[in-house]
Structure formats: structure tokens, C-alpha cells
Amino acid sequence: MYAPIGVLVVFSFNDNAVPALPLTDATTRWYVDAFSNGPLLDSIWASVITAMWTAVISVAIGLSAVLGLQRWGGSRGKGALATLFMSPLVMPYVVLGVSLLMLLRLLGVERSLATVILGHVVLTLPFVVLILQPRLAQIPAALHEASRDLGASEFITFWKVTAPLMAPATFSALLVAFTVSFDEYAVASFVVGERPTFPVYLFSQLRFPQQLPEVMAVAVAALVASLVILVVAETGRRIAENRISPELSEK
């Protein structure tokens, strides 16, 4: 399963411009050339901007959603709303991209990074909800009740009690949403404007054989960056959870 990734890594350091055996001398010049490429760097920056806004918006909506789902308790609408949030996980990305493109055309909205952010928020929202909901369920209801009994408002209770306890999961959700958005191609290819995101630009360069070594180098760099972000997110979440869990058990 990981063999193609291994092949990609090996040939990204191969001095031959043609990815074929036998291997020649090892080199890092493809990485140097790739990150000296102006359009490539612009596409990376476009993806960073898109991913940052996607992460912030998705977490804001996701946090509001899980708080609302918790408050609804066992009402009938809770199951339907939860299913609605999870539906992008089972919907083909191509179908979602085409549907969003048709909607934008009907509304007369020009394609841009903003439309990519819109599509990515839809895609990342289920991941955010799946990360935040279990953490919220672990917070004892007695903490909220005690805060309200002491005269705190709903906002103060959230800011002083819920938000700090949700911080590890919120941080993980931000990083996961950022990574998913940064790497996403299918939906972005339908709704992107004149300024391409990194995956869209990368795929477009595959048509030019002379660009293939640089494409492989950048793909490896993006893979490593994504893995680092996910590892940091999970490690940070576990460390914070281990610090907070004893406090919750005592309370």
C-alpha cells in the first residue's frame, strides 16, 4: 500500500530527469528548483490561505453544532441534524464539486479562493464534529450546572469552563481541517478561480514531462508536512487530555 509513496520519495532524489531505473546519483536540486518556482510558491500560499480560513470556519461551525446537539438531548431533530453533518463523508467528492459548481453558476458567483473555502468547509465539517463531539461528552454536566448556580451566564460558562476543557480537541480539529483542506483536489478543481491551489497546480503540471521531477519533490515535501501536522495534532491532544482527565475525574 505504501510502495507508491516509497517510489515517489526515491525518485524525488534521483538526479535523472526521467523517473526510470537504474537510479543515478542522489541530488536535492529538484527541491531547490521547485521552491524557486514563482507560480508554485503562489499556489502553496493560496492553499495555506484557503486551509487557514477553512479550519477556522469549520471549527466555529462544528463547535456550535456539537454544543447545539448536546443541548437538544434526545429530541427527534438531533439524529437528523447529526446525519446531515456527517453526509459529506459518504458523498463522492466529484458529485459534491459538480453540485457546488452548478449552484455557483445559478447564483452568478464568480469562482475564487472563497468558493474553494466554501467547498472545503463542507468537506472538513464532519471531521471537526467527530473530533469535538466525544470530547464534549466527557465534560461532566455538573460543571456547567455549578457554573450557572454561581450566577455565570451561558457565555461565561462556555468561556471559563467549556472552552478550556475543549481546547485539546479544538486544536486537533483545527490542524486536521487545515491538512484536509490543504491536500484536497477533487472539489477545488471544480470551484477554483484563476488562482489555483497547490493540488490543482500540481496536477496541471503533470502534463509537462520536464516538470515531473519538481512535481515529485514538492509532492514529497507536502506529504511530510501533512504527516508532521497530523502527528503534532494527535500528540498535543493526547498530552493535553492526560493533563485534563485527572482533573475531571476528581471533580
TrEMBL record:
Keyword annotations: Cell membrane, Membrane, Transmembrane, Transmembrane helix, Transport
Alphabetized Pfam families for the sequence: BPD_transp_1 (PF00528)
Location in or out of the cell: Cell membrane
Keyword Transcription: no
GO cellular component annotations of the record: plasma membrane
Transmembrane spans: 44-69, 81-107, 113-132, 169-192, 212-233
Residue ranges of domain ABC transmembrane type-1 in the record: 44-233
One biological process term in Gene Ontology: transmembrane transport
Gene3D superfamilies: MetI-like
InterPro entries xrefs: Bact_Polyamine_Transport (IPR051789), MetI-like (IPR000515), MetI-like_sf (IPR035906)
Topology in membrane: Multi-pass membrane protein
Domain of life according to the entry: Bacteria
Alphabetized PANTHER family for the sequence: PUTRESCINE TRANSPORT SYSTEM PERMEASE PROTEIN POTI (PTHR43848:SF2)
Similarity comment: Belongs to the binding-protein-dependent transport system permease family. CysTW subfamily.
Record-given protein name: Spermidine/putrescine ABC transporter
The organism of origin for this protein: Mycolicibacterium neoaurum VKM Ac-1815D
